[in-house]
Design goal:
Layout: E1 8-13, H1 19-29, E2 32-36, E3 40-45, H2 47-56, E4 62-71, H3 75-83, E5 97-104, H4 111-130, E6 143-150, E7 153-159, H5 181-190, E8 198-201, H6 208-217, H7 239-250, E9 260-264, H8 267-279, E10 286-290, E11 304-308, H9 320-334, E12 338-344, H10 347-350, E13 359-365, E14 368-377, H11 381-384
Parallel strand pairs: 5-6, 8-9, 8-11, 9-10, 11-12
Antiparallel strand pairs: 1-3, 1-4, 2-3, 4-7, 6-7, 12-14, 13-14
Helix pairs in contact: 2-7, 3-4, 5-6
């Protein structure tokens, strides 16, 4: 295994459309040789930096450490390639492991077969070297191995994160269609949220946008509530260095002189948000209230940075177009001098807001194509947009 002070190449995986903001996040943390790829960003750093990336990044889903690239055209070559990797340098036979495979090749029938063949090679490697065999655990493995086969090129990486980094550790309850935490952080970055004013999510669901906004405004590492990562099970794990990295990141936390308002008209959503905000330890920054956006005035007279994910027909029994028209009218009538950002996968309904976006970004919310649109609300925008 490489020493902790040597630089290694890593890959940070993310969602479509987030590559440039993840690259910026990595740069601000101190990564070297950053390169944007498709749904991921390559970078270099030492062992401590890899810990810091897992602990601090908001827009990464997982951090991979590549350990081998091979040309394989059949299953024998695949088996031999995997078995040739010095697995003992990375983890011991006592650890449980699982394999995640991505397959973009005509030569192999499915990714499950790929994982099975690789598993056999790893188990045989350990049996021959140590007379012990590691166990496979697909639900909660200590070690995760990532295989990517594209045509004839097999890339093998160790997944340093383990469970996806969107699992922050503060959410015990969610609503029907919660927004993914990494998606929320990315949306906030794209909306240029830096904690520069009051923040408002008028349809907060389970509170994800408000919580991620508070973490960003206070410069709190996104992984602060998470207790386990796969790298803790690697042979190279340096517990002392890990504690130092966390302490150093927490020293950068700052006060936030404004308020984050989260509201929803559904009592169940308000309860869930309150619980998640409390779990995240952010009650002093986030005010949660039950209110109907269409029937109440803004929570404060000062300018707001608004970001919300309006419910849509599949999630609630509502007719989307009149609902979106009402959102547009409410924004125009009551929210002048504020900025509003909406993420929606109902692209047709978005056109009925009656407002002109100054920025549009194509994203995916799960499998659904979505748009994030930003609107500047001026005192006269009711006249200007008709």
């Amino acid at each position: 295994m490489k020493h902790s002070d040597q630089n290694t190449r890593f890959l940070a995986k993310t969602f479509y459309g987030f590559e440039s903001i993840l690259a910026k996040e990595l740069k601000s943390l101190g990564a070297k040789n950053i390169k944007e790829l498709n749904r991921m960003v390559a970078f270099e750093g030492d062992l401590g930096f890899m810990y810091k990336a897992n602990f601090s990044l908001g827009c990464a889903l997982r951090i991979l450490m590549p350990i081998g690239t091979f040309r394989v055209t059949n299953q024998e070559q695949l088996y031999d390639a995997i078995k040739s990797i010095p697995w003992q340098q990375y983890f011991s036979a006592e650890k449980t492991f699982a394999i995640d495979s991505g397959l973009f090749s005509d030569r192999f029938s499915n990714s499950l077969f790929l994982s099975q063949k690789a598993k056999d090679a790893i188990v045989d490697y350990f049996r021959e070297k140590t007379r012990k065999r590691p166990s496979v655990d697909t639900s909660d493995p200590q070690i995760r191995i990532n295989l990517h086969l594209s045509n004839d090129t097999l890339s093998v990486a160790l997944d340093s994160s383990g469970a996806s980094l969107h699992q922050r550790g503060y959410k015990t309850v969610t609503n029907i269609a919660p927004i993914n935490e990494v998606l929320a952080a990315g949306i906030l970055h794209l909306s240029d949220w830096h904690g520069q004013c009051n923040f408002f999510d008028p349809m907060c669901g389970s509170g994800t946008l408000a919580i991620e906004a508070a973490l960003m405004a206070c410069k709190i590492p996104h992984g602060i509530h998470r207790t386990s990562y796969s790298f803790m099970h690697w042979d190279s794990f340096d517990a002392e260095l890990w504690e130092k990295i966390k302490e150093s990141a927490l020293n950068k936390v700052k006060e936030f002189p404004f308020t984050i308002y989260a509201q929803d008209k559904a009592p169940s959503a308000v309860r869930k948000t309150e619980e998640n905000v409390e779990n995240a330890g952010l009650s002093e920054y986030i005010q949660v209230q039950r209110a109907d956006f269409f029937k109440t005035l803004p929570p404060t007279a000062s300018p707001l940075h608004m970001v919300f994910n309006p419910p849509y027909g599949e999630r609630l029994d509502i007719d989307d177009i009149p609902f979106y028209k009402e959102i547009g009218n409410t924004l125009k009538q009551h929210y002048s001098n504020s900025e509003a950002w909406l993420i929606s996968s109902n692209l047709e309904a978005l056109k009925h807001l009656g407002l002109k976006p100054f920025k549009k970004v194509k994203l995916y919310n799960g499998k659904l194509e979505a748009k994030l649109q930003g609107y500047r609300l001026y005192s006269g925008s009711l006249k200007e947009t008709h």
